[in-house]
Each structure stands twice: as structure tokens, then as C-alpha cells.
Amino acid sequence: MFIAQKGSTIFAPRRIPHTYRYLGKTPGRLMCVITPSGFEGFFEEIGALSPEQQQDIPRVIELGKSYGLEFPPPPGA
Length: 77
Prior knowledge:
The structure is a single chain. The protein is mainly alpha-helical and about 80 residues long. About 30% of the residues lie in helices and about 0% in strands. The two termini are about 20 Å apart. The mean pLDDT is about 90.
């Protein structure tokens, strides 16, 4: 675990579980470069949902599956 500062670059290799959390008090931005292409569709579909729909975790998990995304349980669960 680490805290990335403004302008940081992070590499998250595929098939290695990873996550992030924004700790700022003002709006922030994250730019992802993902290869190969196609996964951006997940973000587009999530972004089209209402905030309430985005909190429907079973729905998000199912949506992720169509992009090969897995949501493993938290450590110790």
C-alpha cells in the first residue's frame, strides 16, 4: 500500500488484484491507460448508471464479468 502524490504514475499488472481509494477533500481525476483496448467500455457503462445504481454491487459485479473483471472478497473474508 502507498499514497500516490499528484502526478504519480502507477503500474498495476493484469491478473494481480489491485484497488485504489481517493483520499482528497476536493474532486480529483484519475487517468487510466489500459491495454489491450476494450476495458474502457466498463467505465463507460458504469458512468452511465445513476449513483444509486452504481452502489448496486451485484449489478456492478455482473457488469464487470462481461469485461473479464473479478471482484475478490476482501482479505480475511
